[in-house]
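FORM 12-B: Structure-to-Sequence Request
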């Protein structure tokens, strides 16, 4: 419960959270120490780890290396059920509630449950919603689901509310990694106003103003992946 509790407490205190998303497949190992230093200097409160095609051994090695030097919570953000490592602190147990692919709604979760049961990972059930972002993203391609339309605010709100009613502890509004367009601010606002649980927003945020805008619209935690991957000085600019 520790990590989720912290997220809840931060929401209550209106302290905004920031996760840097690392894709183990894209890590240049020779630069890892430097990357870790940049994370330490950044305002990140969490490190998320995940990607589309990550192998287990790389996952373990990366988390071990991070844990030696960083005290931030390391949270798995898995692209598929093989991306589980008991070296992390917690896992976002995702259900892709914007889509209608049973594998991503419950199938992969059934496969993962017995494995997770054997770990000490904190399980944070998360209603994951993919939002149209100006082009096909990896999540869309891999999950074979359609993202929610950007203008369908009512549908986004109803989906998030259903996710909350189903017992999810977080809602994650996702544009997709490297998205051309970030999640619309009006959608963040509408969803945030209509759920009680904390709201994560990520995908396609490329500058500090974008992070600020998401916070002001009601995001409790913003995820930055590609922008930091491309420029580890991103937070200093
Ligand atoms: C992807 O929301 C995260 O799942 C981060 O997206 O890589 O576009 O920052 P970016």
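FORM 12-B RESPONSE
SEQUENCE OUT:
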């Amino acid at each position: 419960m520790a990590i989720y509790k912290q997220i809840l407490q931060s929401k209550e205190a209106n302290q905004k959270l920031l996760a840097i998303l690392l894709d183990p497949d894209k890590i240049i190992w020779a630069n890892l120490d430097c990357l870790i230093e940049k994370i330490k200097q950044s305002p990140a409160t969490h490190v998320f780890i995940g990607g589309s095609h990550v192998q287990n051994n790389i996952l373990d090695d990366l988390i071990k290396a991070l844990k030696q030097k960083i005290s931030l919570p390391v949270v798995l953000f898995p692209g598929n059920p093989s991306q589980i490592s008991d070296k992390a602190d917690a896992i976002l147990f995702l259900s892709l509630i914007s889509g209608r692919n049973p594998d991503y709604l419950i199938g992969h979760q059934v496969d993962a449950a017995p494995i997770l049961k054997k770990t000490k990972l904190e399980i944070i059930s998360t209603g994951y919603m993919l939002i149209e972002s100006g082009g096909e993203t990896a999540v869309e391609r891999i999950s074979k689901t359609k993202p929610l339309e950007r203008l369908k605010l009512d549908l986004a709100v109803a989906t998030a509310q259903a996710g909350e009613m189903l017992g999810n502890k977080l809602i994650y509004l996702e544009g997709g990694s490297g998205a051309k367009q970030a999640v619309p601010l009006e959608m963040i606002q509408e969803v945030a106003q209509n759920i009680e649980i904390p709201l994560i927003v990520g995908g396609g945020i490329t500058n500090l103003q974008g992070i600020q805008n998401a916070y002001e619209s009601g995001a409790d935690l913003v995820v930055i992946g590609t922008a930091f991957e491309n420029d580890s000085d991103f937070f200093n600019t």
